[in-house]
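Extended Data, panel c. Modelled sequence:
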Amino acid sequence: MTAPVIPGAEPYSAVGDGRGALVLHGFTGNPQSVRGLALALADAGCTVEMPLLPGHGTDISDILDTRWEHWSAAAEAAYTELAARSDAVVVVGLSMGGMLAVWLAEHHPEIAALVVVNPLLLPPDEATVSLFETMIEGGDEVAPGIGSDIAMEGAVESAYPGLPLRAVLSLFAAAAEVGAGLESVTCPVLVFTSVQDHVVDPKSSELLVARSKGPVEQVVLERSFHVATLDHDKDEIEVRTVEFVTGLLPAPRP
């Protein structure tokens, strides 16, 4: 039995035209952090699905036993369902959501485009992984949280207050695999990269730019930290995402 959903963390769906948009949130976060993107795409006429990924958006105890295979399976299921009722699908994601978007593109070349914000595609150094493993061996299951890495005063991400160690090690292992498969990404990609990111090394974005085989547009964010979708560049991210998507997938004629 899971805890109640945090207010504002609810999943979101919008029925629009044949242009599907799957929007995915980050690790220990929830749809609150990317709701603006989902609403902007819905306002542009897209059919939008923004799921709440397993273990997220409730209580941190619910994420302790979840792993990459649970989050990727949920993203896969949401994509498959949306694709079945869409003419084309774009996948949009923040952090782990961006990693999931890239993973989906690696397995589904029919995906029309990706929009990713500070995606995780490189695991941290061995020292960080070893530290987390040592903490687990010592009996710790949760470390200090990584949420609300935001430059703008007063903006808050409703993420969990802690970092579930076993779950994040699963995420790191998957990041190495997803990062190694970037050459199979052939669709157009729009990537937003924060210069100052205290959660994901901007080198992850650079790896995507360098190795994916489709056309890539990178937007460098000078004012925002990791959760840029809630930060100073929030409006620019939403506007440019809609322009990118509608430029690739014009609205159907009535």
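The mean pLDDT is 96. This feature is highlighted in the accompanying rendering.
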